[in-house]
Write a structure and sequence with these properties.
The chain is mainly beta and 127 residues long. The protein has one helix spanning 7-15, and strands at 24-28, 32-38, 47-52, 55-63, 81-89, 93-103, 106-113. β3 and β4 (55-63) form a beta hairpin. The chain is elongated.
């Protein structure tokens, strides 16, 4: 009988990639944005966070190819090589007011919005 529980793993092995892509929640608050992204087992040194043109980009590059050739695995599914990048639109982001922390496999990035004065109405005179 075909075992569906291992189907995704087998496809990933066959095509040479893993399904880890950093699941994320992006929340907009009154004064900014809060991004929570799953990055289990990833060291902070392997995470890059950039903000450009109102796009917050999170990139992960972790390549652990150290393998003990003496091990005789019956099944080897734990992969520690991850390379991916995700972008999130954060309008009116204040580039000088962004913080990030990594705790228990969750990356939290807080982006404050620029304080923009709203002009309700402006009358333009004709010369």
């Amino acid at each position: 009988m075909f075992d569906l529980r291992n189907y995704n793993y087998d496809l990933n092995d066959f095509f040479g990639f893993n399904a880890f892509n950093g699941n994320a929640d992006l929340e907009e608050t009154n004064d900014g944005y809060i991004l929570n992204m799953e990055v289990p087992g990833i060291a902070k040194e392997n995470i890059s966070i950039e903000l450009e043109d109102d796009v917050l980009t999170i990139s992960v590059k972790q390549d652990n190819k150290e393998e003990n050739k003496d091990n005789k695995y019956l099944r080897h599914e734990i992969v520690s090589t991850y390379n991916f990048s995700r972008g999130f639109q954060v309008l009116d982001a204040d580039m000088d007011n962004v913080t990030a922390k990594l705790e228990n496999g969750i990356l939290t990035v807080m982006v404050k919005k620029k304080i923009v004065e709203k002009v309700e109405k402006k009358t333009i005179s004709i010369e």
